[in-house]
Design goal:
This protein has 676 residues and is mostly helical. Helices cover 67% and strands 1% of the residues.
């Protein structure tokens, strides 16, 4: 699988084609439009404006709508319980931010110092998780707005109005809770079953790898939703217990898929009744059906077929079971750690993590420069410069370089729409239908990509700002200049000055996954009763110890490993949007990510075959594969480039580990010194 450099490009029109790292963000994603979110956004942003106009206080209505805008942006969860945290918690940070900003409004260099400190805190807490990331974003955004726009007094009024807007979005979101309590979780579990059905249909074909990634993503989402509450609540939540049981029995079915894929490559596709039966289980999950399952499956002959048959019949029994025993449902496959453990880990990550401090300092430097610049140079409505920096520098939004370029383009598109609104629509009651339309575009366009989200949010913020300051069309061009200044600051102070952002050692991220894979190989073939050992060595969600030979431990290790590989894949996809050299290096290393996933699949397939009758491998052969993978991981950490290595892994070519050794050799052969 060694790759070779392409031949010299021929002159012609292709030279005028923009690079892929730039055009990737300009292609709209194929995600469906979330119509419920569209309706909520339309009502949440327009109703406060109408109430403010009716009460003769349009500025108050605009502030409530600003808070609602924050709630709309943060409403990204599916489960109702998670929406409470995703919307309510960030609103508290947003209220604190606008309070701090209001207190330093008009205080010159004091405001610069205060916002720089807020940016440091915001950047550091953003590394904790999704909710903390949105909370850090709102903390800084509202502090910038409070320090840049005059707010109605007294000091507590602005944070109160902004919080009311966020709570209004939360109330609209929870309207369907009484009727659809577990619907999002049930839909997610059913979607995981359908993804598994597609995986079996793709067995033996080139589409298998893509479908396996879809299954991993679907399982991650389902476990995150179902395990939002701890296991101690099972006695009070039988629906959650049943969904968790249905999700757990899908794991053996997914675990048997690599063996089915290996069998299909040599003996033809999986029998159509298998994916059909899995889809029938998905329908039963979604509809909540119980009763006796009726499966018509062919008689299994080979070990892989026996594994699929056993897993499918067991899944059918559990899916159709009305009341599973809450004390017999394993919730350790994806359950979060205890609250005190998570608090301790979070505090350690924030205070002692080099990555947390580096990002906080990067963001603080950019915000400090932005505020200092607008303090020295008379830039009208200068808060927009810092707002632009804040959005561009978010660590979980993608590449800083690409975001800076895309935000400039998105702002320009949004300003065109804003110019039409501010120049043609008279202020007053006409703002209500206009806001209904503009607000509806935010969730619809956000699903399509960052540049489209920016284009949708820009006119909304400008219209709300105009209701507070009444500058009309005069807002448009200054906003474009401010956005370009903010993007330039982020590119120079937040990107070019930090070598880690454009000269990242991608191998370090993958090396941990390879080391975890080596540990998984050892665990998969450890004899029953073997001493405890590390199931994984690095990466988020790993590091659990497991007793050798314990099937539950192996399942948990495999789930943790696939989740980590999914994270690595996301990191690489993000790196692909960077300009050279990072983007080109990520492109060269990308086949290795796929190769490591195939090694995990081959390990699982071998274990499944052993469980259903195949002769177990020689322990020395297992140790040789593990040693090869650990040496591989060490080589990835010590090299900036991929260098081809011809590994010699002797063993029984007809044995159960033959496909695994083949995948390891293929991974070592992905290279060429010219790729770095």
């Amino acid at each position: 699988m060694a790759t070779h450099p392409a031949g010299p490009s021929r002159p012609g029109p292709s030279r005028l084609v923009p690079p892929a790292w730039l055009t990737a963000g300009l292609r709209p994603a194929s995600a469906p439009i979330p119509w419920a979110a569209v309706a909520r956004a339309s009502v949440a942003l327009s109703a406060p404006l109408a109430a403010g106009l009716a009460a003769g206080q349009p500025a108050y209505g605009a502030l409530v709508s600003m808070g609602a805008l924050s709630g709309v942006i943060g409403d990204t969860a599916d489960a109702y319980r998670m929406r409470i945290f995703n919307i309510a918690v960030p609103q508290l940070f947003g209220a604190l931010g606008v309070t701090l900003g209001t207190l330093v409004f008009g205080h010159g260099w004091t405001a610069v110092a205060a916002l720089t400190l807020v940016a440091l805190v915001s950047g550091m807490i953003s590394s904790i998780g999704a909710v903390a990331s949105v909370s850090g974003l709102l903390l800084l955004l509202n502090a910038v707005v409070g320090a840049g726009l005059p707010m109605p007094g007294p000091w507590w009024k602005a944070p109160l109005l902004l919080t009311l807007g966020g709570l209004f979005v939360l109330a609209l979101t929870l309207l369907g809770w009484p009727l659809r309590r577990a619907a999002p979780e049930r839909t997610a579990v059913a979607a995981a079953y359908r993804a598994a059905a597609a995986l079996y249909e793709a067995a033996g074909t080139d589409a298998y790898d893509e479908q396996r990634q879809a299954v991993t993503a679907s399982l991650n989402q389902s476990y995150d939703l179902v395990l939002a509450r701890r296991a101690r609540e099972h006695g009070r939540a039988p629906t959650q217990v049943r969904l968790l049981a249905q999700l757990n029995v899908l794991i053996p079915l997914v675990e048997a898929a690599p063996a089915a894929h290996l069998r299909a490559r040599h003996h033809g596709p999986v029998h159509p009744s298998v994916p059909a039966a899995v889809r029938e289980l998905a329908a039963a999950v979604e509809e909540g059906r119980t009763g006796s399952p009726d499966l018509e499956l062919p008689a299994p002959r080979r070990p892989s077929e026996k594994a699929v048959d056993h897993a499918l019949r067991h899944a059918a029994d559990v899916v159709h079971e009305a009341d599973p025993d809450p004390y017999n449902v394993d919730d350790r496959l994806g359950r979060p750690a205890a609250l005190r453990v998570r608090v301790r880990r979070t505090a350690r990550a924030v205070l002692f993590s080099g990555a947390s401090w580096r990002y906080g300092l990067r963001l603080a430097l950019c915000i400090g420069l932005a505020q200092a610049l607008v303090s020295l140079i008379p830039v009208p409505r200068s808060y927009w410069v810092a707002l632009t920096v804040t959005f561009v520098m978010k660590p979980d939004f993608g590449s800083v370089f690409s975001r800076a370029v895309l935000r400039a383009l998105g702002t320009a598109l949004g300003l065109v729409l804003a110019a039409l609104v501010l120049s043609q629509v008279p202020r007053g009651w006409w703002d209500i239908p206009v806001m209904m339309l503009l607000a509806a575009l935010i969730p619809a366009f956000s699903a399509k990509g960052y540049v489209f989200q920016t284009a949708a949010i820009t006119p909304v913020i400008l219209l709300l700002s105009d209701l507070l300051n009444h500058q009309g069309f005069g807002l448009v061009l200054p906003r474009l200049y401010d956005s370009l200044i903010g993007c330039a600051i982020a590119l120079v102070a937040g990107y070019l000055l930090w070598p880690e952002s454009w000269h990242a050692r991608i191998g370090d991220r993958l090396a941990d996954a390879v080391a975890d894979t080596a540990a998984y190989v050892a665990l998969a073939f450890a004899p029953a009763g073997a001493p405890e050992r590390k199931a994984a060595t690095a990466g988020p969600g790993t590091g659990a110890t497991a007793v050798g030979g314990d099937r539950g431990a192996r399942l948990r290790a495999r789930r943790a490993l696939y989740r980590d590989l999914s994270t690595v894949r996301s990191e690489f996809q993000r790196a692909l949007t960077e300009p050279p050299p990072t983007g080109s290096r990520a492109s060269a290393w990308w086949p290795l990510v796929v190769a490591v996933e195939r090694i995990v699949d081959a390990t699982t397939a071998a274990r499944i075959r052993v469980d259903h009758g195949a002769p177990p491998p020689d322990p020395a052969e297992v140790a040789a594969v593990e040693r090869e993978l650990r040496e591989f991981a060490q080589g990835l950490r010590s090299s900036e480039t991929l260098v081809e290595v011809r590994s010699d892994l002797p063993g029984d070519e007809n044995g159960v580990l033959a496909p695994l050794r083949h995948e390891v050799r293929a991974a070592r052969a992905i290279a060429g010194p010219d790729l770095g």
